[in-house]
Amino acid sequence: MAIISSRPQPTNSGEPPKKARVSGAKPAGKNSSHRDLLQGAATIEEQQGEESILIKGNQGDQQQSQNPQEEKIRPQRLEDYIGQKDLKGVLQIAIAAAQGRNDPLDHLLLYGPPGLGKTTMAVILATEMGTNCQITSAPALERPRDIVGLLMKITAGDILFIDEIHRLSRMTEELLYPAMEDFRLDITIGKGQSAKIRSLPLPPFTLVGATTRVGALSSPLRDRFGLIQRLKFYDLAELQTIVQRTARILPVEVTPEGAEEIARRSRGTPRIANRLLKRVRDYAQVHQASETSTKITQEVAVEALELLEVDPLGLDWTDRSLLQIMIDNFKGGPVGLDSLAAATGEDVKTIEEVYEPYLLQIGYLQRTPRGRIVTDAARKHLSN
């Protein structure tokens, strides 16, 4: 239960706090008294970095602060979503079954490495179900009234997407338990002897959580999701198709060989593929300024990515430097994480969460009880 003070909150500027936009005003009735009860207690402040994004999936209208071109790059329908064949099969069945019963989708937890399309999938689900999608992140829900405000704005069938859900505070997480199971919001208004407990009904909705660390979720929260699905890395053919699709949207002309070269260096991640495509486009635009149109060929892609120091396996300068320091200073290991951080000048957490995962995935690094070890495959790659 949330404990929410009914006293007005002071502001730094002396001005009254701004209220977030609420879509779809409803006529006064039973629910209006509930909203009036929370109006003074759970005012939503529009602060930088904490404002949620509302996407209306049934009409395609969007209220958001993101780049419109970036939104065009995101596919809007499940049939346009490239890759993740197993996940799409499961969701197609879930969507068809929910629509047949005229029910909202069951709560869904998506986990996997960053950049694989978890947020995109939440927007697609809203479009397929013809509902709205509220997008927010766990760090933005620090106080109980933040999640209360979002839940009170939800209409029947809406999708609430929470990114990095493993970072939810304990009080916010406990507020979600009855909301997910019984579509009920339990709050305590006031303090001491004057405190009053209210249980407010919520319309049926779907919570879609996304996380890169599914093991960091508490068991009570994880067990309340009806669907738990993992997003996998993309293969070369899927990434090539993604690069070609993004090139048509930007727009920029790219040959199949050029798209394949960019895809090969994208670490199996669409976000990286799209980022590299934009940088190669910039390179081609500058070096082909005298020509009538910009065209990305394999040769242009190789030149641009070598300028960016991204090698054919997707390793950048920092990755190669990390491996080289381990070979030169520690004879390839084993070396402890603290020693490696001191030698490279990088933070321990940065090495462990940013650089290590891909090096482990491609077999260039090993973790042992004694420390990290560079493999023979990494030595061979660096010597070429």
Chain-wise SSE layout:
Blueprint: E1 2-4, H1 30-39, E2 53-56, E3 62-63, H2 68-73, H3 85-101, E4 108-111, H4 118-129, E5 132-137, H5 144-153, E6 159-163, H6 170-182, E7 184-189, E8 196-201, E9 206-211, H7 219-222, E10 227-230, H8 236-249, E11 253-254, H9 256-264, H10 270-287, E12 295-296, H11 298-307, H12 317-330, H13 337-344, H14 348-361, E13 365-368, E14 371-374, H15 376-383
Parallel strand pairs: 1-7, 4-9, 4-10, 5-6, 6-9, 11-12
Antiparallel strand pairs: 2-3, 2-5, 7-8, 13-14
Helix pairs in contact: 5-6, 8-9, 8-10, 9-11, 10-11
Low-confidence stretches: 3-51, 58-65
Rounded mean pLDDT score: 81
- SSE ordering: EHEEHHEHEHEHEEEHEHEHHEHHHHEEH
Spatial strand order of the main sheet: 3-2-5-6-9-4-10
Detailed description of the structure:
Strand 5 (132-137), helix 5 and strand 6 (159-163) form a beta-alpha-beta unit. It is globular and about 70 Å long. Helix 5 runs parallel beside helix 6 (170-182), helix 8 packs across helix 9 and helix 10 (270-287) crosses helix 11. The strands form four sheets. It has a seven-stranded mixed sheet with strand order 3-2-5-6-9-4-10, with helices on one face. It contains 15 helices and 14 strands. The longest helix has 18 residues, at 270-287. Helices cover 43% and strands 15% of the residues. It starts with a strand and ends with a helix. The model is unreliable at 3-51 and 58-65 (pLDDT under 50). The protein has helices spanning 30-39, 68-73, 85-101, 118-129, 144-153, 170-182, 219-222, 236-249, 256-264, 270-287, 298-307, 317-330, 337-344, 348-361, 376-383, and strands at 2-4, 53-56, 62-63, 108-111, 132-137, 159-163, 184-189, 196-201, 206-211, 227-230, 253-254, 295-296, 365-368, 371-374. It is an alpha/beta fold.
